[in-house]
């Protein structure tokens, strides 16, 4: 059995990670930590986990083969020395995703730049071989995951793209602020980041495409829809041919039906799963390719992808503990 510890398990990502690990046939959870909730049963913070015999602790003294750092951005680099060398590490924050120049542009000065190159960027569809050999993995951002998977097959066709992102309330984490309370959050389509979103750095690093994000908060609890536009003069056949790069990927589903209930990717049909649904349209009259990507931000955009990475790092089938379909209807 793989012994797993989750550092910072009280947030949405941490809670989903505990849920997935608790159901994983090859994992034993040895510790879940939280400074704020130390000593409390896990269901006091995550009511859906009632019946799971775990309590939050606030200690570094535990036995683990893999440690998940589910902590806020900027925290991992402060605490990572406590864990280096003791176990494999999967960092859920942005601290080690970007090379130093891009980190400086989007986040500021890095306090542990000497460690950046030690981390593998944890997007299995692009870096499966490196992840299998890795001791340190940086889990991608949720918006970055949706965008990179959609853009990567077309990276040779364009060096610039416009990305319109519709994101759920849970994508902002379990923060307490005025903008997140129900009267302010409900029934909105609110632009909250019109440009220079931090996840743009991950896209240019991984695809070479300069993707300009505009991010909207919408009235759903979980899920992300990325709609990506770039100049293209070709054919639908060419776009489909490039997307067939993913035909053998276990967690990428191509949405190419032109009739039925789902003609294009929609977050509604991936909720609770590790799938990324990708589809496209060709606007011949305006010489535009339109590529769409839908994920559950807490699973493929977070905890599920982390478990997928863990499986690869320990030589398991990457589908282990994740091989289930989305919840529907939601």
Task: Describe it.
The chain has 330 residues and is an alpha/beta fold. It has ten helices and 14 strands. The strands form two sheets. It has a seven-stranded parallel β-sheet with strand order 3-2-1-4-5-7-6, covered by helices on one side. Helix 6 packs parallel to helix 8. The mean pLDDT is 95.
Write the layout of secondary structure elements.
Layout: E1 2-7, H1 12-23, E2 27-33, E3 56-57, E4 66-69, H2 76-79, E5 88-91, H3 100-106, H4 113-116, E6 120-121, H5 124-133, E7 136-138, H6 142-151, E8 160-167, H7 182-185, E9 189-193, H8 200-207, E10 210-218, E11 224-231, H9 236-243, E12 252-254, E13 276-283, E14 288-295, H10 299-313
Parallel strand pairs: 1-2, 1-4, 2-3, 4-5, 5-7, 6-7, 8-10, 12-13
Antiparallel strand pairs: 8-11, 9-10, 11-14, 13-14
Helix pairs in contact: 1-10, 3-8, 5-10, 6-8
The sequence of SSEs as H and E is EHEEEHEHHEHEHEHEHEEHEEEH
Low-confidence stretches: none
Oligomer: single chain
Major β-sheet profile: 7 strands, parallel
Strand content range: 15-25%
Overall form: globular
Helical content stands at: 10-25%
Strand order of the largest sheet: 3-2-1-4-5-7-6
Q: Calculate the mean pLDDT score and round it.
A: 95
Quantity of strands, as a count: 14
The CA-CA distance between the termini, in Å, is 34 Å
Rounded to an integer in angstroms, the radius of gyration calculated over CA atoms is 19 Å
Structural class by SSE content: alpha/beta
How many helices in DSSP terms? 10
């Amino acid at each position: 059995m793989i012994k797993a510890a989750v550092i910072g398990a009280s947030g949405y990502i941490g809670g989903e990670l505990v849920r997935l690990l608790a159901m994983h046939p090859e994992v034993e959870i040895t510790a879940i930590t939280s400074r704020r909730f130390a000593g409390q049963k896990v269901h006091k913070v995550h009511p859906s986990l009632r019946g799971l015999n775990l309590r939050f602790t606030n200690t570094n003294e535990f036995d683990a083969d893999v440690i998940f750092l589910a902590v806020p951005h900027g925290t991992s680099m402060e605490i990572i020395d406590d864990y280096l060398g003791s176990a494999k590490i999967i960092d859920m924050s942005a601290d080690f995703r970007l090379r130093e120049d891009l980190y400086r542009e989007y986040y500021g000065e890095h306090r542990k730049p000497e460690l950046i190159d030690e981390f593998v960027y944890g997007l299995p569809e692009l870096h499966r071989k490196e992840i299998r050999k890795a001791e340190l993995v940086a889990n991608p951002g949720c918006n970055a995951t949706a965008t990179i998977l959609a853009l990567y097959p077309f990276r040779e066709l364009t060096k610039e793209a416009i990305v319109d992102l519709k994101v759920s309330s849970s994508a902002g984490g379990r923060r307490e602020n005025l903008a997140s309370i129900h009267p302010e959050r409900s029934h909105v389509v609110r632009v909250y980041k019109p440009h220079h979103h931090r996840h743009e750095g991950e896209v240019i690093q991984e695809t070479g495409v300069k993707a300009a994000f505009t991010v909207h908060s919408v009235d759903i609890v979980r899920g992300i829809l990325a709609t990506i536009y770039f100049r293209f003069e070709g054919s639908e056949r060419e776009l489909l041919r490039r997307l067939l790069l993913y035909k053998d990927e276990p967690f990428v589903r191509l949405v190419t039906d032109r009739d039925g209930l789902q003609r294009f990717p929609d977050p509604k049909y991936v909720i609770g799963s590790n799938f990324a649904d990708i589809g496209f349209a060709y606007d011949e009259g305006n010489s535009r390719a339109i590529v769409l990507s839908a994920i559950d931000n807490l699973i493929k955009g977070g905890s599920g992808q982390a478990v997928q990475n863990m499986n690869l790092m320990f030589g398991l089938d990457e589908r282990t503990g994740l091989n289930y379909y989305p919840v529907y209807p939601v």
